[in-house]
Amino acid sequence: MLDVIAGQDCCLTAQEIFDDLRAAGRDAGIASVYRALELLTRMGLVRRVELAEAAAYEPALPGGEHHHHVVCDRCGKVSPFEDEALERAIDRLTGRLEYDVGGHDVVLRGACRDCRE
Known about the structure:
The chain is of the alpha+beta class. It has five helices and six strands; from the N terminus they run αβααββββαβα. The strands form two sheets. The chain has a three-stranded antiparallel beta sheet. It has a three-stranded mixed beta sheet with strand order 5-4-6, with no helix packed on it. A hairpin with a 5-residue loop joins strand 4 and strand 5 (about 80).
C-alpha cells in the first residue's frame, strides 16, 4: 500500500488505492485498506486530505514539504499546486493567531478547464 501511495504525484482515495492494489494482483479488502490508512495517518507516514466527497491520502514528507489541492466540483478531478505567496500569507496569519499552528491544508474548489468548456 505504501508503494501505491508513494508512487503518486498527488492524493488518492481509499477506493483508488484498493483498485490499484487489486490491479497489481494484491489480495486486499477495502476494510483492510481503510484500517491501514487510519494507522499510517496516526503514525504520521500518510496525510489525510479532506476533498469534496471523500478523504484522500498522500505521503507525509519528513521535511514537512507539502502542496495544496484544487478540486473540480463537476468531475472530481484533483490537481496539486504550490504557491509561495500563499505560504507567506499563511505564515503571517499564524503570527497573529493565538494558536501554535503545526500545519495546514488548503483545498480550492471550482470547475476545471474541461468542465468549463
